Amino acid sequence: MKFHSSSEQDILVGPGAQVARRKVAAVMSDLLGDVTLECGAGTWSYISIMMPDDIVDSYPEVRKYHKQRSVIEVRVQLPFYDFKDADDVGMVGFMLEGLSRSVDLMVGIKSLKMSDSDADLLRGVVDQAKHKLGIA
What we know:
alpha/beta, 4 helices, globular
């Protein structure tokens, strides 16, 4: 399975957000490299949203499956002010928590038909990433 990561973020979160996202993406790509899901999805596209409270409603959480391309797209809102004030390790932790939430959102995509074993497998990968990145 392939892993792609991007973000929609306010400039106030600073460059640490991109550093954290890239660290997480590198580990996730490595861990997912040999993963095959029963549901047939081949790519997990994770978009983190870090926007202040006054505009975050313009950036809704999204979960959808692009069947023709076999891509699961999940956009997850992260707590802007907590993220902005976090240190490097904290930012990585928020990214990983967002990934955990994205798996929960995937389960609700009817066209994806994700099995419990697929969801458990992806949750396990996120847990492995937490371990590799030193996040308890």
